[in-house]
Automatic annotation (TrEMBL):
Coiled coil feature spans: 280-311
Compartment(s) where it occurs, according to its Swiss-Prot or TrEMBL record: Golgi apparatus membrane; Golgi apparatus, trans-Golgi network
Family annotation (SUPFAM superfamilies): BAR/IMD domain-like
Species of origin: Cynoglossus semilaevis
Gene3D superfamilies in the cross-refs: Arfaptin homology (AH) domain/BAR domain
CDD domains: BAR_Arfaptin
PROSITE patterns named in the record: AH
InterPro entries, alphabetized: AH/BAR_dom_sf, AH_dom, Arfaptin_fam
GO molecular function per UniProt: phosphatidylinositol-4-phosphate binding; protein domain specific binding
Top-level division of the source organism's lineage: Eukaryota
The protein, known as: ADP-ribosylation factor interacting protein 2b
Pfam family, one: Arfaptin
Chain intervals for the UniProt region annotation (Disordered): 1-29
Residues in the signal sequence: none
Length: 342
């Protein structure tokens, strides 16, 4: 009977009240064994504590298990003071919000940045338009580089002439291609008639051979003209166009440079109080920026004009080397001159 009671007591659960009081068996060996078995599968720590009522419970609500051998954890009374657990999510959100901007603040910042960009663009456009109109009506001076502007005008005139050559060469290619196709069809027709007309076999055969020879030389000439068109097209629509785009950027930079120069000159002639001096300093900085941009683009234009001239000479020599187009034209129309002169 006594053994039965003892066995039931060993397997009974130990109730813990709201204060963490273990009742009448604080030093029971069965409790120690149960805790030891439970903590074997837990984290590999040195001591453990069972706390009633969460992390914020009182110190007397702790069941000491320092006598348990094996992996365990110990309670640290200062833990709650260092890391507040209550309201963890809200605290983390507040910390994250303090280190980064909210969506409204980010949107507001983007809007302010865009507004500032539009403001600068509007001010720059106003100054450039004012400078352009003042130059047109003779009320403002402009920066002039006579030598460079003469080279730019020569380039534009050369581009117009090369565009005319390109247009004529393309027209020649289209017409000559149709002529070669017609000669090829005519030669086939003469060859067919020479087979079906025994009495005119020699005449039709001679004309068929002549048309085939003309077609062959015509295809050679057509290939030379196509190469010429391709090279001139690259020179006009890529190389020259790229240089002219740089020239347009240079002219825009020149207009901006003169606009900010005129603005600085007007401010320099005005009063010299604190506000005016601050505006003069800002205008001086903007003027220096525009001046550097103008000089950089001027240097780029000079370099591109030099390389363009070299490229133009090289391209023309490659297209017209050995007077290939003229030679092929002679071969085409003089291939059967002795026979045609009869």
């Amino acid at each position: 009977m006594t053994e039965s009671i003892m066995s039931k007591a060993a397997t009974m659960e130990i109730p813990i009240n709201s204060n963490g009081d273990t009742g009448t068996l604080p030093e029971d060996d069965g409790l120690e064994q149960d805790l030891q078995q439970v903590m074997v599968s837990g984290p590999n720590l040195n001591e453990t504590s069972i706390v009633s009522g969460g992390y914020g419970g009182a110190a007397e609500g702790i069941i000491p298990t320092s006598s348990v051998k094996g992996p365990a954890v110990s309670y640290n009374a200062d833990f709650n003071k260092r890391i507040p657990v209550t309201g963890l999510g809200s605290n983390m959100h507040h910390s994250s919000s303090s280190s980064s901007l909210t969506p409204d603040e980010m949107s507001r910042g983007v809007a302010v940045e865009k507004l500032e960009t539009v403001k600068k663009w509007g001010l720059n456009t106003y100054k450039c338009t004012k400078q352009m109109l003042s130059e047109r009506f003779g009320r403002a001076s402009r920066t002039v580089d006579l030598e460079l502007e003469a080279q730019i005008e020569v380039l534009r005139d050369t581009k117009r002439k090369y565009e005319n050559v390109l247009r004529l060469a393309r027209a020649l290619t289209n017409h000559f291609y149709n002529m070669v196709q017609t000669q090829h069809a005519l030669g086939d027709t003469f060859a067919d008639l020479s087979q079906k007309s025994p009495e005119l076999r020699d005449e039709f055969g001679y004309n068929a051979e002549t048309q085939k020879l003309l077609c062959k030389n015509g295809e050679t000439l057509l290939g030379a003209v196509n190469f010429f068109v391709s090279s001139i097209n690259t020179l006009v629509n890529k190389t020259m166009e790229d240089t002219l785009m740089t020239i347009k950027m240079f002219e825009s930079a020149r207009l901006e440079f003169d606009a900010y120069r005129s603005d600085l000159e007007e401010l320099s002639l005005g009063p010299r109080d604190a506000v005016a001096m601050a505006r003069i300093d800002d205008a001086q900085q903007e003027y220096q920026v525009q001046k550097d941009k103008y000089e950089r683009l001027r240097s780029d234009v000079i370099i591109k004009l030099k390389f363009l001239e070299e490229n133009k000479v090289t391209c023309s020599r490659n297209c017209l080397f050995g007077d290939e187009i003229t030679q092929n034209t002679s071969d085409l129309f003089l291939c059967s001159q002795p026979e045609l002169s009869l």
